[in-house]
Amino acid sequence: MKAIRIAGFSLLVSTGVPLAEAEEGINPIFTSRFNLQLGVQYTDSSATVAVTRRGLPETEIDLDDMGIDDSSTVFYAGARWRIADRWTASFTYNEFDENGSTVIEESFNFDGEEYPVGAELDSRLQLNAYILDLAYSFGKGSNYEWGAGLGLHSFEFAAELEAALFVGDTEEAISDSSESLLAPVPNFRFFADYAFNRRNAIRFNAGWLSANYEDYDGALLYASLRFDHNFGNNFGVGLGVQYTDIELDHEPSDTSSERYDADILGAMAYVSYRF
Q1: How many CA atoms lie within 13 A of 123 on its CB side?
Q2: Which one of 20, 78, 122, 159 counts the least CB within 10 Å of its CB?
């Protein structure tokens, strides 16, 4: 019997499977070294953008003005590395990148350009976030774990408009865009995971991402609740919901300013691979 135990111990060590994972009832979200996720979010969004030149009135345009559907399917990806029993490093990529087209029904000003009624408008709105953090579990048991993390992130955002107004056989083209990548700035995250059994668990995340850097000001707030189902030690699927609030101001010069406001509520579905 002792020889069997020694052989079993050697097999676990040689295959790299954590010993705790071999215990009945321990959910692999608490023991796996690496966790990869790929999925999609079906979002219902409201967003406004204003790019203004000094001396001109600030005009906000929304998704409907830009011809962008307020419901869309976007990409989500995440990875987690359990460095030690209570320490984890996580990376998350959240995407919102949509294109639209419409005929302008009410004129507006965007970055010093006048977009007249009747012009055909093609547009793009991009609000992407790349998030990296290091987290510590202040509480951890056989079926729960909670803690907080600090890290860095970058925003990638763009508002691009291109319009064409036809007067007889003459086409008048109007084009403008605003695009930036915000340098790494700090973030904070709280998380709590609870497992009902070895296969099923719920996971809560909430975070704050700063956007205060040089001539930028603002923040991104988010909260998500997810349900994870594991088929074994390695593969799993999940469903969840996430809410994101984005407020970002940018003054690239003394003569222009940009404002981005967005509320994004999304249902998500994803697959997981753990090892």
Answers
A1: 23
A2: 20
